[in-house]
Specification:
22% helix, 103 residues, 31% strand, alpha+beta, five-stranded mixed beta sheet
Length: 103
């Protein structure tokens, strides 16, 4: 049986993302943790649920400055234009979880 791809909102999720929500991931070239997160979210990126923001781009520099981004990856949940910070949690088994504060 083929392995199921990880998705942003698995069927068994207790709290699905609100409609019109999207993750914004601020990345930096050469950032290994950024590459890991982007690989984990590749299906959701392709589906349009995740927007990547390269901090090296003019838009990325402006976004990082206006939202006090100090490290990459930094992730926000964008719900109808309202940004909420997310935390990347690494578990002992090697899995990665993204936990967002929904405001």
């Amino acid at each position: 049986m083929p392995e199921e791809a990880e998705t942003l909102v698995p069927a068994e999720a207790e709290t699905p993302l609100p409609a019109a929500s999207k993750l914004k991931v601020v990345t930096q070239q050469g950032c290994v943790p950024c590459e890991e997160i982007l690989e984990m979210l590749k299906d959701d990126i392709a589906a349009g649920y995740v927007e990547t923001i390269p901090v090296e781009s003019p838009e990325g520099m402006q976004f990082a400055e206006s939202h006090n981004v100090a490290v990459t990856p930094t992730i926000f949940l964008d719900t109808a234009g309202k940004l909420s910070p997310c935390q990347v949690i690494r578990h002992d088994d090697g899995s990665i979880e993204i936990d967002c504060e929904m405001k």
